[in-house]
Design brief:
This protein is mainly beta and 319 residues long. The chain is built from two helices and 23 strands.
Amino acid sequence: MKQKSISLIVGVIVLAILTVFVIDFVSKRPDKLGDNPYAYSVDEYKKVDPELIHYKETRNIPVTGYTPGAIDVMDGNIWLCGENTLQVIDMNGIQKVRKSIEGKGIAILFNGESLFIAFEDHISRYSPQGDLIKKWETPGLNCVFTSLAVKDNTLYVADAGNRRVIRYDLEGNILGEFEGKAESAAGHGFIIPSPNFDIVVNEFGELWAVNPGKLAIENYSDIGEMRGFWQNSSMNIEGFTGCCNPAEIAVMENGDFVTSEKGLVRIKVYDSSGKLKSVVAPPEKFNEEGEAPEVAVDKSDVIYALDFDRSLIRIYEKI
């Protein structure tokens, strides 16, 4: 009798334990979970005050037949490259040039005389008609080229893989490189968690580089000495958010910056000191958690955004 009682008690305990396990398992199924009070949400930041939006999308041009990789706007044309393709179209989207290239073009720049395309680990120079002039040598290991900028006879190449900017002459000879370090406490070098590393030269001949891990835009001398920077880390519309933004930048005639962010995708305009002047396109216009559109600006400050997620050139003009 005593042994039966002990067996009964043990059985009840085992049954109780099994019941707890079953209840715990069922309660943790995705369809049974309640709201997580610690869940990260950006929904409240997707909506933008219409008073801040001073641009409208006036038209768009589809990119068809290949996956686009980069855009430049120069001399009344739109210059595009992507998967095995170089394309030049006019402002109405009419094709003027289309050529096959070897590999995926990641960045493109036309300086008025020659066309430069960055691939992952090298640069190739082309004629305006798309004929290959010269393929430059790969400058070492681990290269991940992401952006091009030019000043006079110097071509600047952003290399996210090695966290550096390489200086070339226009014939492909390396003049030097720099890693974004400075003598002051501000100089941490380029912090690049992902291959989003953009550079520009503005109309005043100033070289600017995004330091994406610091959510900063930094000014450098021609040979890579830091002159200054501005940064704004904030979930609010005035700042940049995420691990590495802005992902893309362009510059206007007066030195204002056009910025494009990934994750919470949005396009904005800042003055040269980092003060927000306008929203161009809010997050609701793009794919959620989408890729940052590459941005370019023409001489009239019309903004061209290459929307990679939709293979579309979006054109924005000031209201």
